[in-house]
Amino acid sequence: MEKRELIYEGKGKKLFKTDDENRLIAVFKDDLTAFNAEKRGNEDGKGALNCKISNQLFRLLEENGIQTHLIKTLNDTEQLIKKVNIIPIEVVVRNIATGSLSKRLGIKDGTVLPFTLVEFYYKDDSLGDPLINDEHCLLLDLVKSESDLEELKRLGREINSILKSFFAERELKLVDFKVEFGVDKDGNILLSDEISPDSCRFWDATTNEKLDKDRFRQGLGNVKVAYEEVLKRILTHK
Ligand code: UDP
Questions:
Q1: Span 91-102, pLDDT tens digits
Q2: 145 partner at 20 to 30 Å CA-CA among 30, 116, 211, 227?
Q3: 36, pLDDT greater than 70
Q4: How many angstroms separate the alpha carbon of residue 36 from the centre of ligand 1?
C-alpha cells in the first residue's frame, strides 16, 4: 500500500491518501494538547503507544460485534483504515463524574454515576467543541435522522460495556471516554478515530491514580510511564 499526500492533520494524528481511494493511512503523533490546544507538549513514543493501545481495543471491539474503520496496523505508528466521512459529533460516555461534567453541573469529582451518561459535543475547534443536544444535531444537519442519533448512543453504551468489564478485569476504572464515528461508502456507521489514554480517562482501581492524558493536562508527570502501564494491563491475559 503506497502512502500518498497528506489530507488532514489533527491534534493526535495525520491522515494520508493511498493508492486505493477507499483506504487511508493514519499516523499517530507524539504531540499532546490540553484545554483546546492552549497547552501543548510532546512525549517521545506516545504515538506508538496509542497506536498499539487503539489497535488492541479496536480488535477487542470487533470481536464483540462493533464495526470499526481499522483494517490493520502497518508498523509502530501507522494504521491502514477505511475511508469514512466523519460525523462531526464527539460521543462522550461517562461512568464516573469528573472533568467538564463536574465543573458544569457541580457533581463532586469521583461520584459514580447511577447510569451510563452519553453526551454529544459538536466537533468544531473554532467554537470550542460545545455540548449539544439531539435537536442541535438535527438543526446543524450533523446526522441524517433521529435514528442515527439513537444508533450513536447505542454504540457508545455497547462500547462502554465491553471496555468497562475488560478494564475492570485489569484493575483499571474506565472513568469516561470520547469516540468518533464515520460513515463508509456503503452507508455503514463505523467506529473511527482512536481509543487511547488521549481520549479516555483510566484510574487505577485501588489507588485512583490517573493513567491518562490528565497526567499531562494537570502537570502530574510520568505521562509515558502511565501509557505504558495501560498497554501492559491491556496485554495481560485473563
Ligand atoms: N475528550 C477527548 N477530546 C476532547 C474532549 C474530551 O478525547 O476534545 C475526552 C476526555 O479525554 C475524557 C472525556 O472525553 O475522557 C470527557 O472529557 P470532558 O468533557 O470531561 O472534558 P475535559 O475535562 O477533558 O476537558
A1: 999 999 999 999
A2: 116
A3: no
A4: 10
pTM as predicted = 0.97
Give per-residue pLDDT as tens, 155-213.
999 999 999 999 999 999 999 999 999 999 999 999 999 999 999 999 999 999 999 99
CB neighbours of 112 closer than 8 A, spacing ≥ 6? Answer: 95, 96
Give the architecture-level CATH label for domain 3-82: 2-Layer Sandwich (3.30)
Residues contacting residue 77 through CB under 8 Å, at least 6 positions apart: 27, 28, 47, 48, 51
**CATH 3.30.200.20 segments of the chain:** 3-82
Distance CA 81, CA 21 (A): 11
Nearest CA to ligand 1 atom 6: 178
pLDDT digits (tens, 9 = 90+) for 52-105: 999 999 999 999 999 999 999 999 999 999 999 999 999 999 999 999 999 999
CB 45 within 8 A of CB 29: no
**Terminal Cα distance for the chain, rounded:** 35
**Residue 37 pLDDT > 80:** no
Q: What number does the ligand 1 atom closest to the CA of 102 have?
A: 20
Residue nearest atom 3 in ligand 1 by C-alpha distance: 199
177 lines ligand 1 (CB under 6 A): yes
Q: Which CATH architecture best describes the domain 85-221?
A: 2-Layer Sandwich (3.30)
